[in-house]
Amino acid sequence: MYEEKEPVKKEKKVKKEKSKKENKFFQKTPLKESKGKEEKEKIEKVSSADEKKKGLKILSFRADYVSVLIRFGIFLIFAFIVIFIVTKVRNSGDANSFTENMENMKEVAYTYYKVETHRPVSVDEEIVLTLKDLEEASLIKELKDQEGNVCSKEYSYVSLVKTSSDEYDLIVYLSCGGESQMATYPVSFDDSENHNVSTSTLLYEQKRTIEVNEEYSCPEGYYHAGRYCISTNNTVTVQATPKYKVTPARNSAARYKPTGYEYEYVDPIVSINESSYECPSGYTLSGTSCVKEGTVRYRSSTSYSCPNGGTPSGSRCLFTVSANYSDEKPYCRRGTLINNDSCYVTEEYKVRCVTGKKDSTINACYTTYSASEELSDWLFDGKVTYSEDYDIDRLENERRMYEVDEYLDNGKIRYSRYIRKYIKTCDDGDELKGSTCRHYDEAYEQRYCSDSDYHLASDESECFTYEDARYKETSGIYTCPSGYRKRGSGASSSCYKYESATKNTSQTPYCASGYDLTSNGKCVRTIEATLVEEKVTYSCPEGYTKRGNGASTQCYKKTTTDSYYYCTNSQATLNGTRCVIAEKTTFLGYTCSNGYDLSGNQCIKTDNVERILATENDHTTSREEIIWSKEKELDGWTWTGNTKEAE
Fold first, then answer.
1. CA-CA distance, 79 to 81, in Å (whole number)?
2. Phi first, then psi: what are they for 230, rounded to 5°?
3. Closest CA relative to residue 400, chosen from 384, 379, 385
4. φ, ψ at 83 (rounded to 5°)
5. What is the bridge-based pairing of β-strands 201-217 and 638-646?
């Protein structure tokens, strides 16, 4: 049996040694005193020689100075040793040597394994407790080595191995600060106190029905025993003794798995795109062409007619008559002379905007709308260099494209990069201002004359008024009727006037630049579709991260695993932080005393044995078996309801 031993304590004699050193340190040697007297006598004898006297005094001073330095040096060394010891003790705290820590673990482990239910049951079985288990059970405090390093709680452990029916090996393993030691102690335990207590066990009667394959049969008057049939004359029959094994319940500390991480992998999604034609965004594939429909616009066209006669001339009708001869010549201070008796005076009209806003710089009205954005054609954007295994495809999209320009000697590839930019556009004829388009239209205007004496012309092209012409005496002139103007001179003079023609307006549909007007009145832009060769792509499901390219693609995601306790024995059940293996009863069979033969669940003894070979056959019969078990519920058995107590 293991016996606890008190560690031998060494008595320290620090104070005594210290006092000796202190006495020695402050002690003056007799040798130096005698030398001082001799020197003094010599100095007194040579009183007449001043130089010799000075030399002796200097020598005495030097000797005393050296002595003080030596004593001061010893004092510094002693002070350093004291400071070092105090500092070491303070830094160590609860630190102990490996031997002290292992002895502590051994004492705690032995006390724990004293409880019979804490020990292994069968030979070679081992029950392990980590240092962390001992700390969590409040059986031991945190251990540190002499350097103050905390000992490993996961790797350090104690265990008990059963080596025989009543002998065990107690193993202590300790790991601190990168150093480890192991020790094995043979131990035994005194369970006499438990054995002296009289206890009784409640047994339960269990029964079951089994199917027995009767491979052999015997004639009447014989009973079957193995391959033989034995005569039943002078036989004694007793109930066979059931034999079963009871495995006691075991309770050990569960292992602890801290929080960690694990990676979950799935196969990538493989997509095969066959050769096909593709169109830019906004286009619809039609055969091998890409079609995009735009907005139909309308251009207004105007024509003029003269229903009252006259000759059409722009937006007016021209009328001509012969000039009249007169001796007076009319003239106008301003404006144009009409019919030789009035002046036609004009000024620029003013504009009010019925719709939209007014542009004062050009005296016109306009409405606005947001400019549309369109991708430009591919534009060169410089050259870039990447390594040969770089996945250039992941950089490309509808606005960025790379073409191989050159394979370099260093294993890299130079690419030409092309980009497409979004640009602002307006309908034809409209003006772009920043990101807004202006559409000017005469239909938005209401023209008027600022001067009340003026009138707006019928074609709204100007404001006009009439003033009386002035006259001056001439030698004879040709004049025109009212409303007409003169053209030519002398006998070649003629008169003309313009009247507003009838305005005829029509609208003609048209399309923006790059679009064609179809027969059904739609604006359509058609470009050639891009041929895309067959391509195999690898992608990952949502939530997974892609690693690698092509056939080497891997899809994974990192998940967090919670901490938990677990049992290393598959037969154990986790209960909190303990692993429990319930007591188990296993039926082994029946046994008979010497001299009896086992037949089923009976033991038979015959005085005069007559043995004959049993007859082989193939026959199955049912038979009921009964045993007494410490377990109320036993796999494969049914409790009959009967119980009994056994010592």
1. 6
2. -115, 135
3. 379
4. -65, -40
5. antiparallel
Range with the largest mean pLDDT of 34-38, 480-484, 536-540: 536-540
- DSSP for 473-498? EEEEEEE--TT-EEES-GGG-EEEEE
Contact of 530 with 279, CB cutoff 8 Å: yes
pTM of the prediction?
Answer: 0.24
Q: Hey, is 609 helix, strand or coil?
A: coil
DSSP structural state of residue 117: G
By the 10 Å C-beta count (0-12 exposed, 13-18 middle, 19+ buried), 613 is classed as exposed
pLDDT per residue over 623-642, tens digit each? 777 877 767 777 778 888 88
Tokens of residue 317, six digits: 């009708």
Structure-block tokens of residue 292: 């995009």
Instruction: Read off the pLDDT band of 415 (50, 70, 90).
Output: very high
Instruction: Please give the backbone phi and psi of residue 451, each rounded to the nearest 5 degrees, phi first.
Output: -95, 130
Residues in the chain: 647
Q: Would you state the structure tokens that stand for residue 346, as one six-digit string?
A: 């004009």
22 to 17, 63, 79, 80: CA distances (angstroms): 9, 22, 12, 15
Lowest mean pLDDT among 333-347, 507-521, 581-595: 581-595
Find how far residue 250's CA is from the centre of its chain: 43
pLDDT digits (tens, 9 = 90+) for 45-66: 444 445 444 454 544 445 566 6
Model pLDDT, residue 173:
92
Phi-psi category of residue 194: left, alpha or beta, with phi > 0 → left and psi -120 to 50 → alpha: alpha
Instruction: Provide the b/e sequence for 342-352 (b: ≥16 CB within 10 Å).
Output: bbbbeeebebe
Q: Give the Å distances, CA to CA, from 243 to 240, 593, 602, 627.
A: 9, 13, 13, 9
Q: How far apart are CA 381 and CA 390, in angstroms?
A: 20
Helix then strand then coil, % of the chain, to nearest 5: 20, 50, 35
What would the pLDDT profile of 76-113 be if each residue is shown by its tens digit?
A: 887 777 665 555 544 444 567 888 999 999 998 998 88
Give the separation between CA 501 and CA 309, rounded to whole angstroms: 10
Tokens for 257? 């798995």
Which single residue is written with the structure tokens 């008595």? Answer: 11
368 pLDDT exceeds 70? yes
Neighbours of 572 (CB within 10 A): 18
584/645 Cα distance (integer angstroms): 18
Over residues 527-559, the pLDDT tens digits come to: 998 888 777 888 999 999 998 988 899 999 988
